[in-house]
Amino acid sequence: MQRQIDTLILTAEPLTSQAFSQFGDVIERDGSDFFLINNGSTRRYHELANVDVEEQGGKTIISIFEATPLEYPLTIKMVERHPLGSQAFIPLLGNPYLIVVAEKGEHPKSESLKAFISNGKQGVNYHKGVWHHPILALVESDQHLIVDRAGPGNNCDEHYFDESDLVVLQRP
Question: How far is the C-alpha of 34 from the C-alpha of 64, rounded, in Å?
Fold first, then answer.
């Protein structure tokens, strides 16, 4: 018996705090409250996201990722999650990029995948345990500042989708 392959086409929607709230935080200045510091010369957009790391000897680290675009339309074959800490991606060069996420849980379902597009001024902070696709740049040598956890324990689980549950992400 041959199994039918269902293909789900995934289209990215604009990234908003409300639409992304079950997956994490949108890190952006627009629409955020601020207060003045440094004798009034600086606006501080305070606590846009919270870094969440386990207490098992973990620590918060900052890295830079330089990414290359993948081929689109892209077949989503896998997602990953970080069970011991949050992970933030903050664009450094102002380029839009794609975000693919799935609900928390033991095994993500392909039909629960959602796609978003950042306007290039928005970062995201994935909550601990949220399934997401690795970085999806849209331009060559795009760069993101990453804030995440380092320390003991396995902080990266990967899930590969069955070939009968194909999800294809269109390039916007």
Answer: 26
SS3 30: coil
pTM listed for this prediction: 0.91
The pairing of strands 6-10 and 78-81 is unpaired
- What is residue 2's predicted lDDT score, i.e. its pLDDT? 43
**Size of the chain, expressed as the number of residues it contains:** 172
DSSP 40: T
CA distances from 124 to 37, 47, 50, 55, 167 (A): 25, 13, 11, 23, 22
Which H or E run contains 137?
Answer: strand 136-137
What averages of pLDDT result for each successive group of 10 residues across the chain (172 residues)?
A: 65 96 95 93 94 87 97 96 96 98 92 96 97 97 97 95 87 88
User: Around Cβ 128, how many Cβ atoms within 10 Å?
Assistant: 18
- The token pair at 132 is 């997401």
**Cα 1 to Cα 89: distance, rounded to the nearest angstrom:** 44
Of residues 59, 50, 51, 99, the one with CA closest to residue 79: 99
